[in-house]
Design goal:
36% helix, 10 helices, alpha/beta, 341 residues, 9-stranded mixed sheet
């Protein structure tokens, strides 16, 4: 009897040992294929798919649209058009141009018809003329105009755009012009270097997505590219980015930054209107809407493909303009027409 029990125990122990050995072999085989390194990442072996990443990170977008009443007046610009284009305002040495007044008026009418509200922003305000234009259309409760600039801290103005220290945005001129449209109560100045800014900082300041975000900061390629990316990240889905000095041969970095941005992010922005000074951009999904409005306002203007800008992106970056659509060109005289269609 005892011998039988011992034989059975020995047999059971052998079976257990075999099971344990099998489990160990399987575990080692599994670990050899997807084991852990000291850093915690999976060990790669032939046959693993190299195109599947462990993590996928994309640009942060910020979605926080301001509630808007459909009953808002379509535009307040008619009240200030004469003032902003007057000799009294021009004497301050601003870059006044009635084309920009009309372009902002067009944008505002489209946005109001679609119940779009939100802050209005400019990076690089010079003496405040375009800020005053933006303030002229702010009508919804809580719509604030934010003026970002280096102001007195011009040491970071490495390309001397806007004249640098000599013609730095003078606060007294700035407020004189803003006061011409009775807007000092809705305009807030922000001293900052846009190269230091992130979308989260912008949104924490103004809460809602800007419906217009003007880019007129430093004009060298890296800065203009970064400002475009910052503006696009926080822009209202139906918002607009006016890009200044895209047609100014003296500042080729702006057009190069635009071309580079369009190459790197081909599905993001589209131009729909070009004036003497600014190229107006919107999200791809809104291009047809804004382009139709521009064509209706300027029925005799040229409709130009993006390729007509002859924009050269950064070194070794290739821009395919075939799918970037067209824009209405109202630049007219005063612009090197070899750059246009």
């Amino acid at each position: 009897m005892m011998r039988e029990i011992k034989r059975n125990l020995a047999s059971s122990a052998a079976q257990v040992a075999m099971v344990l050995l099998f489990v160990i072999v399987v575990m080692r085989s599994h670990q050899s294929r997807v084991g852990r390194t000291g850093g915690g990442g999976p060990v790669r072996v032939p046959g693993d798919n190299p195109t599947v990443a462990d993590h996928v990170l994309k640009r942060t977008s910020y979605s926080s649209a301001q509630p808007c009443s459909a009953q808002l007046a379509p535009s307040g610009m008619s009240l200030w058009r004469g003032v902003l284009n007057s000799a009294e305002v021009r004497k301050f040495g601003t870059s006044a141009d009635v084309q920009e007044i009309d372009a902002v008026d067009l944008i505002n009418n489209v946005q109001r018809s679609r119940s779009v509200c939100g802050p209005l922003v400019e990076i690089g305000v010079y003496k405040g003329w375009f800020i005053a234009v933006l303030a002229g259309i702010a009508a919804a409760p809580g719509e604030t105009v934010y003026a970002f600039d280096l102001f007195s801290d011009q040491k970071a103005n490495v390309d001397n755009s806007g004249g640098g220290q000599k013609h730095a945005p003078l606060v007294n001129y700035f407020w004189m012009i803003v006061n011409k449209v009775n807007a000092s109560n809705i305009v807030e100045t922000v001293q900052a270097n846009s190269m230091d800014l992130e979308g989260q900082q912008i949104m924490s300041l103004m809460t809602y997505n800007p419906r217009i975000f003007s880019v007129d900061g430093a004009h060298f390629g890296m800065a203009a590219f970064r400002d475009l990316a910052l503006a696009s990240a926080v822009l209202h889905p139906e918002g607009v980015i006016p890009l200044d000095d895209y047609s100014n041969a003296g500042w080729p970095g702006v057009l190069s930054a635009f071309a580079t941005y369009m190459a790197v992010f081909p599905d993001d922005l589209r131009p729909f209107l070009g004036t003497r000074a600014k190229l107006y951009l919107c999200k791809k999904e809104m291009h047809a809407t804004y382009l139709a409005a521009a064509k209706a306002k300027y029925p005799t203007a040229s409709l130009c493909p993006v390729s007509s800008l002859k924009a050269e992106p950064d070194v070794r970056v290739v821009l395919d303009t075939s799918g970037l659509g067209s824009f209405v060109d109202i630049a007219g005289k005063g612009v090197d027409k070899s750059r246009w269609c």
